[in-house]
Amino acid sequence: MALRTHISERQRRFGAELRRLREGAGLAVKDAGALVGMGGPQLSHIEAGRTGLDPDRLTILLEAFGLTDETYVSALHQMGLSNGKGWWSAFKGVVNQPALDLAESESTATLLSNYETLLIPGLLQVPSYSEVILSSDQKKVAFRQGRQRALEGTGAVPFHAVIHEAALRTRFGGRDAMRDQLDHLVEVSELPHVTIQVLPFRCTDYVSTGTPFMILHGPHRDLDTVLTEHPSGTSYLSEPADITAYHSKFERLTSLALPALDASRPLRSRVEPDSWGLVQHLRYTL
What we know:
Blueprint: H1 9-24, H2 29-35, H3 40-47, H4 55-64, H5 70-81, H6 97-108, E1 111-116, H7 127-133, H8 138-147, E2 159-164, H9 165-169, H10 174-188, E3 194-199, E4 213-217, E5 225-230, E6 233-237, H11 240-256, H12 275-284
Parallel strand pairs: 1-2, 2-3
Antiparallel strand pairs: 1-4, 4-5, 5-6
């Protein structure tokens, strides 16, 4: 079987999990390969994501590694069997590979936890706002709108966003576009699986993160992934220490942010500042 020239995040993660499990079981790559009738180099290619592994051999390896968690085992089988195709496949060549990986990961996540500093989260952007961010590239705008399918329908993924107040005050697209964007935040917050909080300027605590990130929760905690954004691009983190650190960061952010957007609460009950009140204030001052 020819080796892959392009390795998706799912393929990379599948191989990385096999390597981590093998090393945790104290098995050398050549010894683990021998268990399924392959040489060490071939298994190394699988662990690097360069090629796949059939389900029967995967079952043998996972048993040899001592993995008994059924949820974890099932998730690894699904990762290995997936062809990675979806609505995002039509955008290959339009957006880069990390963006395609993100769309695929969002579609299979069990929960999305997103922190944004200067921009409205992509999953919550209206087209007029995205057009400014994406330099009016309509194909990329369509891709970003397509990502929002993850929040729609019966299989919608729960989404929790913490948005810095700076993102709400920066008027990308002008007053009308920003007004539409703020209205959309209120509307989408009414969905039972969407939670939106605002981290206000008045927050005096520092959470040791100045960059946006998203935790893509897998069917098992060990399969969570963190996507970070920085000027040179995006990075996917999957080491247990990184996952634990970003879980703590997000929990801290949610505790410091204002109470979630909730348009259903009576005005008289809003004694303390909340995200809904701040969004409404910003909307009417545009």
